[in-house]
TrEMBL record:
InterPro entries registered for this protein in UniProt: Ald_DH/histidinol_DH, Ald_DH_C, Ald_DH_CS_GLU, Ald_DH_N, Aldehyde_DH_dom
Organism whose genome encodes this protein: Tianweitania sediminis
Coiled-coil residue spans: none
Residues of the Aldehyde dehydrogenase domain: 30-486
One annotated GO molecular function: oxidoreductase activity, acting on the aldehyde or oxo group of donors, NAD or NADP as acceptor
Active site: E260
SUPFAM superfamilies: ALDH-like (SSF53720)
Keyword set, alphabetical order: Oxidoreductase
Family: Belongs to the aldehyde dehydrogenase family.
Protein name in the entry: Aldehyde dehydrogenase family protein
Length: 491
């Protein structure tokens, strides 16, 4: 794909929501400017939906669930539609990558990687749709007992701006495979690919109302959606604070929720680790997507004998990092919006004021537009584990280094935040790998590797404040359905 497309895609386009198989403006007529984080300029617009639009979308999804062809469609046919959608995503991959990249500021190669992962989600769940089944249960004499996995009904998906296409795919893939219908509310800062994918779902042949999209602010459209009495299940990815608000709203109707919240994930490097293998992964796990990744490896714990050497190596690599506009494909792009740029800058400045030592700073390409939302990657060394920068999720290209003395301290430090999403363990000692993997509180543990994002087949989710419920892999299909037990008395 030429650089040209990623700079001009969707220029001037007034995007529409997708409700009941039709393009839909907001009922109020309100619109939200879509800004490119690379230059701070408006290049398109989306509808600003409110409660009335949400109500329309939910009613359409409810009708599709209860009365439409979807409710009687065999599982393998739902699977075929998902597979077809994956194929259409691949076919339109250049446009989707360019859209995602321009809308969020992520480097174009990351946009392309996101397209590949997105396609894989629909392929995976397309294949899984007719392979999940219930049990028969040995029960009393004269009885037959069995279970079915049934869809919840209308699922509300509230999606963040960091990996909009991928996160939509893991929600939509699992929810639709199990026979739910869906109302999606993407983040107002990154709604474009969600709209395009709902359009492609119609092209693939999904019946109207199965895949609805409302766009707008979280406080308006998002709040109305999570509190809507006709929603049967809510799945959310985003900040812990908004997650709490959404759970409270869903609790009014006693609805189930999946919460994929933040992280402060550790990578634990023992003295015997293969450093050649570890070093690029330690850097990439925090720099990928500008650090705006829930599973970013934001804390690196180094065993004392190797602390100085590794800190020096990481400092050299951090110092060489350059933030560039999305289409220039730098080590990282700008942050997604001004608020995020401000949050990263403020947390870095506060840590410096508190005396945390800066080991290295990357740079911003001097030709990058001044009005873009760039930040310099920053590496902090010898951080106090209780310091704010050691505890709070920055969601930016900021890495903190800690020294530890032996296995027990490594476990204590790894588990010393409110979060528990992902962990990386680096050692050649097999027994130590197993002990650490069990003692670290995290939903995913990687040994001699790290997966920030990706891993379609691998169940993913948090302990502690990182959330609850599991997405990705086969497990997501359980969250997106409920067990029904049926007992026949034929004695
Ligand atoms: P956020 O508030 O959690 O937003 C995530 C989604 O929730 C967006 O679609 C947002 O819509 C929507 N939303 C906001 N308020 C809502 C409400 N009251 N009811 C229902 N939906 C609501 O995240 P943010 O403010 O954009 O970012 C803040 C911080 O969240 C980041 O700095 C980062 O630490 C964290 N974050 C984590 C993840 C993750 O993957 N775990 C992803 C993104 C952000 P609008 O954006 O349209 O308002
Ligand atoms: Mg944007």
């Amino acid at each position: 794909m030429g650089q040209h497309l990623s700079r001009t895609v969707a220029e001037g386009r007034a995007f529409m929501q997708v409700i009941n198989g039709q393009p839909a403006d907001a009922m109020s007529g309100g619109r939200i400017d879509v800004v490119s984080p690379s230059d701070g300029k408006v290049f398109a617009s989306i509808p600003a939906a409110g409660a009335a639009d949400v109500d329309r979308a939910v009613k359409s999804s409810k009708k599709a669930f209860e009365e439409g062809p979807w409710s009687r469609m065999p599982a393998f046919e739902r699977g075929r539609l998902l597979t077809k959608l994956g194929q259409l995503i691949e076919k339109n991959g250049d446009e989707l990558a360019a859209l995602e990249s321009r809308d969020t500021g992520k480097p174009i190669r990351q946009g392309k990687a996101d397209v590949v992962a997105t396609m894989r989600y629909y392929e995976f769940y397309g294949g899984a749709a007719d392979k999940i089944h219930g049990d028969t249960i040995p029960f009393l004499d004269g009885y037959t007992a069995l279970t079915l996995r049934e869809p919840h009904g209308v699922v509300a998906g509230i999606i963040p701006w960091n990996y909009p296409m991928q996160i939509l795919a893991r929600v939509a893939g699992a929810a639709l495979a199990m026979g739910n219908t869906l109302v999606v509310k993407p983040a107002e800062d990154a709604s474009l690919t969600t709209i395009r994918i709902a359009e492609l779902a119609l092209e693939a042949g999904f019946p109207e109302g199965v895949f609805n999209v409302v766009t707008g602010y979280g406080r308006d459209a998002g709040a109305a959606l999570s509190a809507h009495p006709e929603i049967d299940y809510v799945t959310f990815t985003g900040s812990t604070m908004t997650g709490t608000a959404i759970q409270q709203a869903a609790a009014i109707n006693n609805r189930g929720v999946t919460m994929e919240l933040g992280g402060k994930s550790p990578q634990i490097v023992f003295a015997d680790a293969d450093l050649e293998k570890a070093l690029p992964v330690l850097v990439n796990a925090i720099i990928q997507n500008g650090g705006q990744t829930c599973s970013a490896g934001s804390r690196v714990l180094l065993e004392k004998p190797i602390y100085e050497t590794v800190a020096k190596e990481l400092a050299a690599r951090f110092g060489a990092l350059v933030a560039k506009p999305h289409d220039a494909d730098g080590d990282l792009g700008p942050m997604v919006n001004k608020k995020q740029q401000g949050q990263v800058r403020n947390l870095v400045a506060a840590a410096e004021e508190a005396g945390v030592s800066v080991l290295a700073r990357g740079s911003i390409d001097p030709t990058a537009p001044e009005a873009g939302f760039y930040v310099e990657p920053t590496l902090f060394g010898s951080v106090d584990p209780l310091a704010n920068i050691a505890q709070q999720e920055v969601f930016g290209p900021v890495l903190t280094l800690f020294a530890f003395d032996g296995e027990a301290e490594a476990v204590r430090l790894a588990n010393s935040t409110d979060y528990g999403l992902v962990a990386g363990i680096w050692t050649k000692d097999g027994a130590l790998q197993h002990r650490m993997a069990k003692r670290v509180r995290a939903g995913q543990v990687f040994v001699n590797g790290y997966g920030a994002g990706g891993g379609i087949e691998l169940p993913f989710g948090g302990f502690k404040k990182s959330g609850h419920g599991r997405e990705k892999g086969f497990e997501a299909l359980f969250d997106m359905s409920a067990t029904k037990t049926i007992v026949f008395n034929h004695g």
